[in-house]
Amino acid sequence: MTTDDYLATRPSDEELRRFHQSPPKAIPEPSFAHLLRMSDDTGLFEHARGPIPKRWHGYCVDDVTRGLIVVCREPDPSPQLIRLAEIYLAFLLDAQDRERGFHNRMGLDRVWHDEPETGEWWGRGVWALGTAAHRGPTPWIRAVALERFGDGAKLRAGLGPQSRLNHAMAYAALGAAEVAEAHPGHPAALSLLTAAADTIGRPNPDPSWPWPEPRLEYGDPALPEAIIAAGQYTGDESLLQDGLRLLEWLLTLSTHEGHLSPTPAGGWSLGDPRPAFHQQPIEAAAYADACVRAYAATGDRTWLAGVRMSIDWFLGVNDSGIPMIDEGTGGGFDGLAEDSRNPNQGAESTIALISTLQHARWLNDLSTEI
Predict the structure, then answer these.
(1) Alpha carbon separation from 46 to 61, 186, 247, 335 (Å, rounded)
(2) Of the candidates 4, 2, 78, 95, which has an alpha carbon nearest to the alpha carbon of residue 43?
(3) CB 132 within 8 A of CB 65
(4) Rounded Cα gap, residues 329 and 92, in angstroms
(5) What is the reported pLDDT for 78?
(6) 3-class DSSP state for residue 156?
(7) What is the DSSP letter of 301?
(8) What does the pLDDT read at residue 366?
(9) 3-state SS, residue 302
(10) What is the DSSP string of 17-74?
């Protein structure tokens, strides 16, 4: 295969023919090969050309938090992954300002190029610290992360020009749920879960659009997941049911001919065409996360269908019939168009793939137990 072939936006007809005519393949194990390729001793590079890191674009907290989360979710991490968790955590500690929130963007010069705020990246930072406090691979990672979670949880998402308030609070709530699981009754975690549910709000009474925002955007499954988590850990059954209702509506809306057809990068509202493109891997990963949460909170196995659709989206069971995994590199492709895929393998897309394959492994283990 030539370089031009590899970087073509559409898989060759022969590749697609082989993919669709071959018998179903086993779901691959999560691979950290590309995540390691995208990382150095400072953090995680945001963008790539194909699988090659674009170092000159630098690092961002948004992606380092995602990286820390998936590394901490590994049940038996290698020494190499433990070292990666330490690098990512150190990056977040440097980004965090205990009074103002988090920086988000660091250049290749290792200088922060913005001011700390409580934007969406603050929510992701709190999510990652909460996850590391619960699932970190070493006692020292868990201890430091718990301390800095407490600092982050004292703040609340702001209304700055780059802030998506509901999403920032939802991400932070997911970190609070991790802490509440590891430390039942943790005051800061429970307070943050309650505040997030209040911020996101109750479903609208209109059954055709119960969503708490006028338009769907990227990463929306985190909102009902946060409400489910708030109900789960505060014992508020009405919150739990609200979150389940919103997730069911969103998942139904994002199902097309039996497969996942998520919100495109440009958002979606009633009257817009479906299926819509360009779809991003973060959407499939967010549905998998939310449906796993719904199953954990209820024991209702119907939610596992949503997890399976999320996995299948990466395998090519999607609106374009194109697989979104590069099994040679371990990377995930950046986006799905109507008849092509973005050939680049950035940090966000690769981490979304890893996260979803971690759920696939869990789903397989669950099926074996039952």
Answers:
(1) 9, 33, 29, 15
(2) 95
(3) no
(4) 27
(5) 97
(6) coil
(7) G
(8) 83
(9) helix
(10) HHHHHSPPPPPPPP--HHHHHTB-SS-BB--EETTEE-GGG-EEHHHHHHHHHHHHT-
Sign, CA torsion 295/265/117/346: positive
pLDDT of residue 19: 46
**Looking up tokens 């201890």, which residue turns up?**
143
To 10 degrees, what angle do helices 187-200 and 139-153 make? 50
Sign of CA dihedral 36, 354, 141, 118: positive
Q: What residue ranges in the chain does DSSP mark as E strands?
A: 48-49, 52-53, 59-60, 96-97, 101-102, 105-106, 255-256, 259-260, 325-326, 331-332, 335-336, 341-342
Output b/e per residue, 301-310; b: 16+ Cβ within 10 A.
Answer: eebbebbbbb
Tokens of 298: 């209820």
| Phi and psi at residue 143, to the nearest 5° | -65, -50
Token pair for 71? 């590394």
* Tokens describing residue 126: 């709190």
The whole-number mean pLDDT for each consecutive block of 10 residues of the chain, a chain of 370 residues, reads 51 54 69 98 97 96 98 97 98 97 97 95 98 98 98 84 80 98 97 96 93 94 98 97 97 95 93 91 98 97 96 96 96 95 97 98 80
* Rounded alpha-carbon distances, angstroms, from residue 35 to 64, 116, 132: 11, 26, 18
CA–CA dist 34, 42 (Å, integer): 16
| Structure tokens, 157 | 């998402």
